[in-house]
Amino acid sequence: MQKEYIDVVVEGKKIRIEKGITLETVSKNVKHEKNSLIVAGIVNNEIRELTYPVTEECDISFVDMTTDDGIRIYQRSVIFLLVKAFSDVFPDKEIEVRHSVSRGLFFEPVNMELSKEDVGKIENRMKSLVEKDIPFRKETLPTEQAKDRFLRDNRIDRYGAIKYREKPYVSYYVLDGTEDYFYGYMVPSTGYLSLFKLEYYNGGIVLITPRKSSPNTLEMREIPEKLFQIFSEYQKWVSILGVDNVGKLNDIVEAGKINEFIRISEALHEKKIAQIADMIYEERDRIKVVLIAGPSSSGKTTFAQRLSIQLRVNGLVPINISIDDYFIEKANTPLDEDGKPDYESVEAIDLKLFNEHLNELIQGKEVHVPFYNFITGKREYRNNKLSLNGGKILVIEGIHGLNPRLTAEVDEDKKFKIYISAITSMRIDRHNRIPTTDLRFIRRIVRDHQFRGCPPEKTIELWPSVRNGEEKNIFPFQERADIMFNSSLIYELGVLKTYAMPLLRNIGPDLPQYSESRRLIEFLSYFLNIGCEEIPPNSILREFIGGSCFK
Length: 551
Known about the structure:
The chain is α/β, with parallel strands linked by helices. It has three domains: 5-64, Roll (Ubiquitin-like (UB roll)); 70-221, 2-Layer Sandwich (Threonyl-tRNA Synthetase, Chain A, domain 2); 226-545, P-loop containing nucleotide triphosphate hydrolases (Rossmann fold, 3-Layer(aba) Sandwich), CATH 3.40.50. It has 15 helices and 21 strands. The chain has a five-stranded mixed β-sheet, with helices on both faces. The protein has a five-stranded parallel β-sheet with strand order 14-17-13-18-21. A hairpin with a 2-residue loop joins β19 and β20 (432-433). It is globular. The N and C termini lie far apart (71 Å). The model has no long low-confidence stretch (mean pLDDT 90).
């Protein structure tokens, strides 16, 4: 049979290839500048597995481990490898993904506790499967047949995840005879997965995989104990609400009971905020400055407002100072790696003046607080004078709140530090978690369109830069917090879906953000729509969808 050839553009260069060869073959036969493992391809702005056959003229680029997509695909594949190895070592037991930690994911077995020796056996089995280079085989089933199979196999969590989906088929993967469903793509075979490590922790397993900042090594960082505790606390909330996966949430929506669920979820938030205000009040003679920090779209602004109300209930008078008003003049602002003003750098703040003013306020003096004019790029004074006399307390919210350099000259004993983030513990099913980052990402897409006139494709384009700034300016200091607050609401993705889906569907295949929009659409399709009528005006979610009582 005569071979056919087609012209394609690979990483910007036009070449001729044999029609029908896979992306994996193309990647091995074409020179490229990738310095880490290639795990997928992008064909005409749509992500494809390396097993995808190229049958027509197209533009091709490759996805390596320096990208979010690459890390997701690699990590997802290693998760299946772990699930398979665990079932080989413990044939009658189940393991569940719980949540992320600083360098990987935490897993717990169901109704058993692992030992260090057990974890070593699982890791050795994973390594043996990697050496065998076993393919991940993709299969599809009509949705109704898949439902029957999941019920037959007692995978109620998986059945619940697809119970209300409108997609006519379900894709799943087979590894050496073990079937499982995973949300998203896989590498072609286990031979790709040589870089991972398991560690025993708290009766479970920490799965360590590469990060995009160091794709060819494993970062051996300490587990953040305080953040781990907040995940555990959220797990208790999940137990109170009886919703640990998307299927159970959808059942509540379908039964018409979501309004009560919303009220309970919001009450848990209010109770936690009140507890934090009580902690501050108990130490009111000591604490003079409350510092609030967290990543993008974590709900810092609304949290600060609600905390201020609770402080007032306790008899304290919160006073706000904006860190932005202490920016140095624009001409002196440090530049980022692209030569643009870096307002997210702590060096963009006049740290000397900021600390002077804080100390003067703590000492009971009156301070003339500046105003930063972003149009002129200069600091102005508009007769804004503050003091902390009469039971007043400073509440300062900003990305650098936990960075010790921000308040280096202020007595530590006078500060109370709060870290806030939207931390998810609800899962799609036992082996597919809901990433905290994706929740914040969808919040930001909705908010930027609602209030900043920013189209979703622009938010998607800027998100990697936002994430890099968080890695540099926020996450390294989160363990310095005195208390952490989880701003996520278990019901919120059903609400955000109604706002985000039309925006994401408007991103066409001619745009480079198309692949990411398709991924988010697929993710949100697991959730039934939830109306916003019963969401209270002081909800953190209102900061993103509108209707907030805080202006």
